[in-house]
Amino acid sequence: xxxxxxxxxxxIDAVELxxxELxxxELxxxxxxxxxxxxxxxxTETVRxxxxxxxxxxxxxxxxxxxxxxxxxxxxxxxxxxxDVSRRFLAPALLExxxxxxxxxxxxxxxxxxxxxxKAGLELAVLDAALRVADRSLATHLGAVRxxxxxxxxxxxxxxxxxxxxxxAGYLDEGYARIKIKIKxxxxxxxxxxxxxxxxxxxxxxxxNSAYTLADVDTLAELDRFDLLLxxxxxxxxxxxxxxxxxxxxRTPVCLDESIVSAKAAADALxxxxxxxxxxxxxxxxxxxxxxxxxxxxxSAGVPVWCGGMLETGIGRAANAALAALPGFxxxxxxxxxxxxxxxxxxxxxxxxxxxxxxxxxxxxxGVEVDTAFLDEVTVDRVEIRR
Length: 387
Fold this sequence. Notes:
14 strands; Enolase-like, domain 1; TIM Barrel; seven-stranded parallel sheet; globular
């Protein structure tokens, strides 16, 4: 894996965004019911709890999304920790600076250790505001080369393999370009075999969400016979060395997700040959600007990347579509239509599926408008921090 070549030029558009004057930062905890329970190796969600960020500036507002979940099961970050650190430390630090550019946000927040999802949501809101002032889209700013992207769907663990096949059939009928199924010990080989037997050579990958250890190597090796695109995060997020050992035992490409918390973490994983594919999630790496750095690193190394999902609302979903339109995103990601998860989204023009693709928003900022009336309906907590 050639990772010692000089990095490719940074993808971000060369236009420098002007600083914006922050007046206030609003945080909202939102509860959005899911259209169906979503089950993974770490639990089941029926309601998506997420934090919506609104930065108020002298020139207009910007929106972001903190993609934590209600409990620290997928990540050590969770709603109340993100709420607390954003309200007490992160938002006040930005407001104290007063006038900021999006590129300055990470540095301003760097004294506060961790909390990457919270930082990413705040950075996105500042990006959105600054880009709206500049009348430029997030896609253009990040370096997008496509106006639409293929859309994959993530399928949670179902009641049994037959139910999984029925669920996958529905998504294929809708036109999704790639299927990802969640697996865990005891729900892996039979489930994967059922989908492969039912649908032949469809693009298929599996996601373990850290459910296995090296003691399960024989089971994981059996997945090789299903001709999968990849197996995502089979081991714990800090098991980079074990992932390298596992990758040497499998024919199926190993993709890292939870382990990739920064561009440096990606470089370390590639140096150890712990993965041959990287899933890029802006919330997990601390923001969309850091996500571009991960993209650029992997593109330089000839390593494919794809954009993962965190059950985002239309705010984060629109931003993910912009990110996934960059040239290095050569694998179909999890930017699915809004109605995959929500009967009603909090944006006025939800993301929709068109011939297996979703369009990359082209309007200023993230390119979508928030349905503030509906947002009020699903808000369960709200605070505004002022200068």
